[in-house]
Structures are given as C-alpha cells and as structure tokens.
Design a protein that fits this description.
The chain is α/β, with parallel strands linked by helices. The chain contains six helices and six strands. It has helices at 2-8, 19-31, 59-67, 84-93, 116-129, 137-143, and strands spanning 13-16, 39-45, 73-79, 97-98, 107-109, 112-113. The strands form two sheets. The chain has a four-stranded parallel sheet with strand order 1-2-3-4. The chain has a two-stranded antiparallel sheet with strand order 5-6.
Length: 149
C-alpha cells in the first residue's frame, strides 16, 4: 500500500497502536523512501481490549510514543472509548493534533450516548480554553507540505 501511495502522490497517515508500530513499521517504511517529511502519524490508544498489541491510554504511554516518533513528524492522537477525552486533551497540551468522533467513542460521558457534533464541540471548547485554534483546510495542507487546491 505504501508503494501505491507513493506512486499516486498520496500522503500517508501512519496509524499506530503501539511503540513497536512506530519503531519497526513506520520507521522502516520511511527509511525505504515511502514517505517524505513531514510524516503524519496518528497514535490510537485505548484499544487494548479489542486490538492485538494495542496500548491502553495513560500519560506515560503517550509521552513514550511521542519520543519514538521519527524526526520531522507531525503527530495526531485518537483514542477509543473513555480514553478519548484525556488522550486528546494531552495531545493538545503537547502540541499535537487530534481526531475525535463516533468512529472511536460512542459516549459523551459514562452512560450518555454522544453525537459527533457533541464530541467535536467539546474538543473545540477545550482548544479555545488553551488558546488554540483548529487549522483550516489550507493551513492543514501547508503543514503537511501538500499542494494547494
């Protein structure tokens, strides 16, 4: 797949569930020339109950995974279930990007089903309190060194 992405000019999102995915898989493919900086790496945490080799979320695990990233990486954090709120908030505090929504988490809080809108609006409120702003599409393309549309 990485070879096809390269041939088609597609910027890969390297989705990783453990430090091993970063060190063994992503780093090897980058070394073989299948991506150019900046590398976009999405760390998915909290999937340890359903995915083989996936890591639970805790602040130490996320910090360790960030330290394993190849130089010139842009990182994103998404987390499954109740790990979503603390993991994405920590990612924002550490200068990363986040993915939130029903793909990873069905609940706004324990026992209360969420909507995508609720999860996104909560993240936007947290970002506002941290004096952060979401990137526009052109800003995101520039960060990833993608051509303008």
């Amino acid at each position: 797949m990485a070879k096809l992405f390269l041939e088609k000019g597609i910027k890969p999102e390297w989705e990783v569930f453990s430090p091993e995915h970063i060190v063994q898989d992503v780093s090897r493919l980058i070394a073989k020339g299948y991506d150019k900086p900046p590398y976009f790496i999405n760390m998915v945490l909290g999937g340890d109950r359903g995915f083989q080799g996936a890591m639970p979320y805790n602040s130490d695990t996320l910090n360790f995974m960030i330290r394993q990233l190849p130089p010139q990486s842009i990182f994103c954090v998404s987390a499954i279930g109740p790990a979503q709120l603390p993991a994405t908030t920590q990612a924002l505090l550490l200068g990363g990007h986040v993915r939130v929504g029903l793909e990873d988490n069905n609940y706004y809080r324990a026992g209360e089903l969420a909507t995508n809108l609720q999860l996104v609006e909560r993240t936007l409120r947290i970002m506002s309190e941290l004096q952060l702003e979401p990137a526009s599409a052109p800003e995101a393309r520039a960060m990833l060194n993608l051509p303008a549309r």
